[in-house]
Hints:
The chain is built from eight helices and 13 strands. The protein has helices spanning 58-68, 90-93, 131-135, 150-161, 165-170, 194-207, 225-234, 247-256; strands at 9-17, 21-29, 32-40, 43-53, 77-82, 96-101, 118-119, 174-179, 185-191, 216-219, 238-241, 259-265, 268-273. A hairpin with a 2-residue loop joins strand 3 and strand 4.
Amino acid sequence: MTSTSARPTERVRVQVHGETTRRKEDRVIGEEPLEIRLAWPGQSGERVWVTMRTPGNDFELAAGNLFHEGLVSPQSILRVAYCTDAELSEEERFNVVTVWLDRPPLRHPSQILSSTGTGSSACGVCGKESLEQVLQLRPAAPWQGPVPAIEVVRELPDKLRNSQTLFDVTGGVHAAGLADADGNLLLVREDVGRHNAVDKLAGARLLAHQPSAEAVLVLSGRVGFELVAKAAASGIGAIVAVGAPTSLAVRLAAESGIALFGFTSPTRAVQYAG
């Protein structure tokens, strides 16, 4: 991806206390703010959202976030770039991304975002005026292709785990992956925020001019409502997670025609919907 002064991991000095105490160098996952701006004909750039994220794949994160929020269509994105405002410091420039459209957004950002327009790395639904607005982001039609057999479902978390390079180094990052119905892992993204990882997946597909829809979204942790909403907006057929879903996640998955699996391991999977 495009180079950035912000790094996905940082070196720190630590003390390890056990039977003895030793000092060593360790790596922790990076967490920095990213401001997403949206520009279109007649509008030079409007702040849409600020989220805490792991630096890397920032353009994908911006594009995927705006798509999942129902603001842009894949065909409307002209380009994505870091901000070059003169008043920004060198570090700040790599924490501000602008997405340029060739037409006005599908709806104005003020219609779906709160006055704060800020989210934490743990928060995906924060900033929306109501849950009803999230429900509006569902696609017109559910996934029409095949979804994986249960034997394939049970294999997916281990496949995702084996692709988590940042987790191997830091132990402090979520992952999301796209897979086909045969269990082939097509794309993986990691981020300190689980919803950011899902945004990065969608953004990667959109910027590569590929459909956002796929048979399976694989998650390294629990499944909250906001993750199912993003999957529904992308046209995902099934969600396979290591952890548990929430009640709203189960409800939205059922309403959206998404097969939902939790507590997934090589020997077990609990199906909540589909």
